[in-house]
Amino acid sequence: MTFIVGDVVGSVSPLVSLIISPSRTQHFTSVSLSLSCEDQSNSDRWRVRRYTESEQWEDCSSRWASQTGSTCTISSTITSDTGVYSCQSESGENYHPVNITVHSGVILESPVHPVTEGDTLTLCCLYQNTSSVLRADFYKDGSLIQNQTTEMILSTVSKSHEGFYYCKHSERGESPKSWISCLCVCFSASHSESQISVLHTLSSVLAVCPYLLVTVVLIFKCCRMRDEMSV
Asked: Known InterPro entries for this protein (predicted)?
């Protein structure tokens, strides 16, 4: 299940990151799950919160988990732990939301955060009873894209790879769906163009400088000669 909570899913802060251990979006039932809000100063001013089927934000508390500093620990996961988890600031704003699914049986091992454009992505299909990697079929948006393999590798990830992925085993069943997103690095081109523009301007100024210097010197000499002749 994938939750969309207002505009929270689009909220990003460069100051804090939600770290999940194990580092994946899908998790088995009856296992320990740790979620930490980490910033550059390693402060404890962030709190882990979740939004579930109850349609309300919940604090990490003794009712479903325990909070130590900025780390929230679920000792034994259950399916109702499925939801959106994020880091909340002291002012009440939520940052870095992550969809987490808790499921028994088969899960898809997929990344927590968006994959950077151009990177390689590897997806695996795991089975709870043995924690082993299954030879399974992999689907994107309901269409079969690779069959009977232990891992699916997407090389040079781009925006076209975004979508809902899941895996299916003929006997063990299928995993829930996970959304894979791609982080575009197109800003690099504009950044490079800015640098080229600045360099071009500097080179133009430096090229003109000698002519300006000669002009100043000539004006100075003319003024001096005029003063001498007037004397």
From this structure: Ig-like_dom, Ig-like_dom_sf, Ig-like_fold, Ig_Fc_receptor, Ig_sub
